[in-house]
């Protein structure tokens, strides 16, 4: 795994990946979001409960099989 860093605006819950990272389309990534305190309106009310989120990218896939295949690439 490697890291990239860029700044972007989140609009309607969507984060657009810059074109220079287009090779990341349709891939899995670990995401860390850092928001400046002065720019986070309602930050005290921000909920990090993601239990109601659904991920369509791997729907119908065997997650264990995908992880094993990824590890085999190492």
Number of individual domains: 1
Approximately how much beta-strand content do the residues carry?
5-15%
Mean pLDDT: 79
Number of separate helices: 1
What is the H/E string?
EEH
Give a short account of the largest sheet. Answer: 2 strands, antiparallel
**Unreliable stretches:** none
Q: Numbering strands along the chain, what is their spatial order in the largest sheet? A: 1-2
- SSE class: little secondary structure
Tell me the overall shape: extended
Count of individual beta strands: 2
User: Rg from C-alpha positions?
Assistant: 16 Å
Q: What distance separates the N and C termini?
A: 10 Å
Q: Explain this structure to me?
A:
By secondary structure, this protein is largely without helices or strands. The model has no long low-confidence stretch (mean pLDDT 79). Helices cover 14% and strands 5% of the residues. It is built from one helix and two strands; from the N terminus they run E-E-H. It has one domain. Strand 1 and strand 2 form a beta hairpin. It has a two-stranded antiparallel ribbon with strand order 1-2. The termini are close together.
Layout of helices and strands:
Elements: E1 10-11, E2 14-15, H1 63-72
Antiparallel strand pairs: 1-2
Describe the structure concisely for a colleague.
This protein is mostly loops. It has one helix and two strands. A two-stranded antiparallel sheet has the order 1-2.
Considering the chains and any ligands shown, give keywords for the structure.
two-stranded antiparallel sheet; 74 residues; single chain; 2 strands; little secondary structure
